[in-house]
Amino acid sequence: MGLLARLRSLLRGSHGRLARELGAFGVVGAACFVLDLAVFQLLYAHGGLEAVTSKLLASCVSTTAAFVGHRFWSFAARARTGLRREYPLFLAINGATLLLSLGIVALVRYPLGQEDALVLQAANVFSIITGTVVRFTAYRRWVFLDPAARPPWVQRQAGDLAR
Fold it and tell me: Can you give the pLDDT of all 163 residues of the chain as single tens digits?
C-alpha cells in the first residue's frame, strides 16, 4: 500500500477523525487567538483599561466565537447532546481556563511589577497556549461526546435543542 493510500485509510478511521478535529480546532483556535490578542491589545494599549480587565473582556469575546466554531465545525461529527448541556460545560471549562489565564497575567503584572505591553502580551500568549491544551482535551471528553460512546441519558435528550 502506497503512502497516499495509507494516509487516506488513516484519515477515514478514528485517527482521521482526530486529525480532522485537531485541524478544525486549530483553525477555530487560531482565529480566536488572533481575536483575543487584538481585543487585549486594543483594550490595554489603546483603551486605557487595566491588564486583567483587558484579558477578561478579550477572553469573553474569543470564548463566544470559539463555542460557535467548535460546536458547528470542529466537533460537528460528535453527538449533539443539547445546548442546555453543552454550553454550560463549555463555559465551565472556559471559566477554569480563564481563571488560569487571569492568574498568569496577574502574576506577571502585579507581584512581578511588569507594566510593559509586550511583556504582558507574552504572558497572555503563554496563558492561551496552556488553556488550549486543557480545552481540547476537556471538550472531547465532556462537552462534545463521541457518538459511539453516547451514554443512555444523552439519547433521551436528543431533541434538546440539538440541531
Answer: 676 666 566 556 677 788 899 999 999 989 998 999 999 999 999 999 999 999 999 988 998 899 999 999 999 989 888 889 998 999 999 899 989 999 999 999 999 999 999 999 999 999 988 988 899 999 999 999 988 766 665 555 444 444 4
pTM of the full structure: 0.66
Q: For residue 117, what are the domain limits?
A: 28-156
19 belongs to a structural domain: no
User: How far, in Å, CA of 45 to CA of 157, rounded?
Assistant: 46
Question: Closest Cα partner for 146 from 14, 7, 2, 6?
Answer: 14
Report the Cα 14 to chain-centroid distance in Å: 21
Is residue 93 domain-resident?
A: yes
Give the chain's radius of gyration (CA, Å). Answer: 18
For residue 90, is it within any domain? yes
Residue 4: inside a domain, yes or no?
no
Structurally, the chain folds into a number of domains equal to: 1
d(CA 158, CA 84): 11
Q: 96: alpha, beta or left, given left = phi > 0 and alpha = psi -120 to 50?
A: alpha
Rounded CA separation 65/70 (Å): 9
Look up residue 25 and give its amino acid. Answer: F
